[in-house]
UniProtKB/TrEMBL annotation:
The keyword Nucleus applies. It is found in: Cytoplasm; Nucleus. This is Proteasome subunit beta. Belongs to the peptidase T1B family. It comes from Protomyces lactucae-debilis.
Length: 229
């Protein structure tokens, strides 16, 4: 039971995911970060089959880092990132082992000076949206965002609305979601925001360290856990 939420406003994108990693009726991990920082101004959230999600996220992260290193540290903007991810999913869909992942991509475009949010599903469908959700959150939160979110909503109001959405999910859902990890992407980069007040200093350090990825030397190939030559 995974929940991904995203809202986009003037100059910012808020992205949140629940912390519990669940398999059947068992909580496998209570502090699962379902996101990857792709570069300084782009963030990826993922949900779906456990093996597919982590492998696909690492594959995308590594290849975006590789592109940057091959092109004089050029940072891909959000639309290019979303198009690349959509292409990889579309090609995977036509293979013997398609990825079963649903994604949210949020970022800040340094050229256009705008924040952008993209919704992508496992079929390779992609749409730029002002707000989005994957999982059961879509049943409860999209109508609330439709009513209260506007193109000019400041980040403080969006955070309050997001917190209200968390409370609604905890009230309506029969299972505990384990709290939420919220991140904001704007012109200053990617930052963690503790809306619940439940993130311990140790968890904050852990999540910050997970943003730092090992150097990528060569391009990864789909469905292979190792970096190919």
């Amino acid at each position: 039971m995974e929940v991904l939420i995203g809202v986009q406003g003037p100059g910012y994108v808020l992205l949140a995911s629940n912390l519990n990693q669940v398999r059947g009726i068992t909580i496998m991990k209570p502090d699962d970060d379902k996101s990857r920082t792709l570069n300084d101004h782009n963030l990826l959230l993922y949900s779906g089959e456990a093996g597919d999600t982590v492998h696909f996220a690492e594959y995308i992260t590594a290849n975006i880092a590789l592109y940057s290193r091959r092109n004089e540290e050029l940072e891909l903007h959000t639309e290019a990132v979303a198009n690349y991810i959509r292409k990889e999913l579309a090609e995977s869909l036509r293979s013997k082992h398609p990825y079963q992942v649903n994604l949210l991509v949020g970022g800040y475009d340094l050229v256009d000076k705008q924040a952008k949010l993209y919704w992508i599903d496992y079929l390779g469908s992609k749409a730029q949206v002002p707000y989005a959700a994957h999982g059961y959150a879509s049943y409860y939160l999209l109508s609330m965002f439709d009513r209260h979110m506007t193109p000019t909503t400041p980040v403080e109001e969006a955070l309050a609305l997001l917190k209200k959405g968390f409370e609604e999910l905890e009230r309506r859902m029969p299972m505990s979601l384990g709290g939420f990890l919220t991140k904001v992407v704007d012109k200053d980069g990617v930052r963690i925001i503790d809306l619940h007040g439940k993130l311990t200093p140790e968890l904050m350090v852990q999540f910050e360290q997970e943003k730092v990825h090992a150097p990528v030397q060569q391009e990864l190939q789909p469905q292979q856990p190792e970096v190919s030559a």
